Amino acid sequence: MTKRIAVAVETPQHTGVGVLDYRADTELPPGTLLRVPLGRREVPGIVWHRPGDTEVADEALRPAGPALAALPPLGEAWRRLVEFAAAYYQRGVGEMALGVLPPELRKLDDVQLARRLAKLAKLAPLPAGEAPEPPPLTAEQAAALATLAEGTAPALLHGVTGSGKTEVYLRAAEQALERGQQALVLVPEINLTPQLEARFAARFPGRRLVSLHSALTPAQRLKNWLQAHLGTADLVLGTRLAVFASLPRLGLVVVDEEHDPSFKQQEGARYSARDLAVWRAHDAGVPVLLGSATPSLETWQRVQEGRYRRLALDARIGGGAMPRVRVFDMSRLPRERGVDAPALAPPVLDALRERLERGEQSLLLLNRRGYAPVLQCGECGWKSGCPHCSAWRVFHKADRTLRCHHCGFTERVPRACPDCGNQDIAPVGRGTEKLQEQLSELLPGARVARIDADSTKGVGALESQLSAVHAGEVDVLVGTQMVAKGHDFRRITLVVAVNPDSALFASDFRAPERLFALLMQAGGRAGRDAEQAARSEMWIQTWNPKHALFAALKRHDYAAFAASQLDERRSAGLPPFSHLALLRAEAKTAEVASAFLDAAAALAEGIETIGVYPPVPPAVSRVADVERVQMLVESASRPALQRFLAGWLPELHALRPAHKGLIRWAVDVDPLAI
Ligand code: ADP
Ligand code: ZN
Ligand code: ZN
């Protein structure tokens, strides 16, 4: 008996949704993994639940290859999620489905997989220790949990660092586990998983917990994924890719730091794991908790509209408070022409010295790594540009290199100016390396450490640097936004934002929202308990002391900041009051890329529900000798935008051959960085 089956496969996008018909001799339920011929290759596929696109007669269908019969089929809910994500982010179903499975799964045959499964079945039962007595809930935590249990609308758990959000996640997870369900917990950063994993493992000693993130070995990722899929793991903790874990008994979804941009995938299928988590929970009829001190304005607006519930944790556990915020007006500093402003204002230096005397720690936030962002020749004006990008190469003093942070192009620092031979080429501006160096001079004897992408390259480097901070071996910690996130420092009583101004005037309309979140998060590193809070301060060094953002920060007033941002967004017709898609084009020349976008825009003409902005270069337009141009498409209606995109993309595929020299194009739905 021959059956016609639809199989999701990774096809080049223009061949349709990526579901093709094959013939099979055995019953293969939807969700079965198998191999099928595609062109001259054999590729992995998944039996899908809908007819394929193929318009061929049964007799002409190609036979499907061997199935991974040992693996229980992927469930209907999982396939619905994939199908939704593919449609929403304008990708093929097959591409989406296979792209989010552990890569190892596509390599194994049925025998190899059966062997892995047999090994898993033999996993020893856990070393079932006594679960610790959880702390009694605060009134706010109890109220949050009670409200969560009442309804099904997504819930924003709104509270600063140390307000007890994780304890609420633990209790909500406990309830799901007691109902015999699985809990999925998403965090923005791989670095934050071990910390959270340890807390969950300690709370649920008898339960199996697995993590899913891109730093796992392929074998480990498959093993963990299988445990979630088989239902033997009760808790799944991971970064954005974990939103696609197969969870047959899903009972709770948590998204910690829901505002964090790293929940958005920035290549391939550019999905938002936060948004998919909300969709998935809704589809499964289970609660979803979005935790943040500074919710994304999308989430906050939904709270205002009554579509999401807000569970407030207004107080820090143990009587802590946010540190007092003080703003220093940098224009008050006397300044010589051509000389960089000092790294730190006098009252900030005093504050640092006070901490040193008291044996407390300080955190200095500077979102720019390297020694100096550019080298310049004092004679002829030469600057250390990257020959391949429209960007400066950054001076790294430690290894005396000039490095491009966009394409990676690295050279030794020249001895003299390449243009005029002048020996006096000097760094301009300041990065974390230089700040660290200057601090060692300004604060003799202080132990100054630096944590950024450069200092943490080696395996385990971040962990060892963090533990040095925790152990009190560091007095002053200099770092990029990496250090502002999540890490539970207990000895910090001073936080300094060294130079936060650039975000105030960035072309990206989300820059102020990000800066506010970053500063709140950094501030949250200090003042964890009442005693510490009394001595905690946060200093902002700025040339724009009157800016509304800093005024709101001083009052720790997220709501006021959000309201003013939402007003601006409303009048400018920006998200969350409109919906965006970004079409990016890359070519050897900007003309070719722009011509493609112009042709794409012409296709959208006359469609009333859609607005198309003129093509513009992004902030860094040339990277690795490729020119980039982008174009925003906007609509007041999400469904209208979706309908438009679904029709537009096939037309863009058809358009492409006419644009010689076009290297790549891609559409980003709900883009975060524009
Ligand atoms: P957040 O996730 O908001 O940063 P946590 O849940 O980590 O907050 O709580 C901060 C600290 O307070 C942690 O050390 C935690 O163990 C403790 N804590 C949380 N809830 C309570 C509670 N109800 N009683 C006592 N301590 C608590
Ligand atoms: Zn010169
Ligand atoms: Zn470059």
From TrEMBL:
Pfam families hit by this protein: DEAD (PF00270), Helicase_C (PF00271), PriA_3primeBD (PF17764), PriA_C (PF18074), Zn_ribbon_PriA (PF18319)
User: What sequence ranges are listed for the domain Helicase ATP-binding?
Assistant: 146-313
Family annotation (SUPFAM superfamilies): P-loop containing nucleoside triphosphate hydrolases (SSF52540)
What are the required cofactors?
Zn(2+)
Keywords for the protein's UniProt record, in alphabetical order: ATP-binding, DNA replication, DNA-binding, Helicase, Hydrolase, Isomerase, Metal-binding, Nucleotide-binding, Primosome, Zinc
**Which reactions does this protein catalyse?**
Couples ATP hydrolysis with the unwinding of duplex DNA by translocating in the 3'-5' direction; ATP + H2O = ADP + phosphate + H(+)
In which residues is Zn(2+) 1 bound? C377, C380, C417, C420
> Is Cell wall biogenesis/degradation there in the keyword field?
no
UniProt remark on cofactor binding: Binds 2 zinc ions per subunit.
What is the main EC category here?
isomerase
| InterPro entries assigned | DEAD/DEAH_box_helicase_dom, Helicase_ATP-bd, Helicase_C-like, P-loop_NTPase, PriA, PriA_3primeBD, PriA_3primeBD_sf, PriA_C
- EC number(s) on record? 5.6.2.4
Assembly and partners? Component of the replication restart primosome.
Give the family per the record. Belongs to the helicase family. PriA subfamily.
What this protein is reported to do is described as: Initiates the restart of stalled replication forks, which reloads the replicative helicase on sites other than the origin of replication. Recognizes and binds to abandoned replication forks and remodels them to uncover a helicase loading site. Promotes assembly of the primosome at these replication forks.
Its protein name is Replication restart protein PriA
Which organism encodes this protein?
A: Rubrivivax gelatinosus
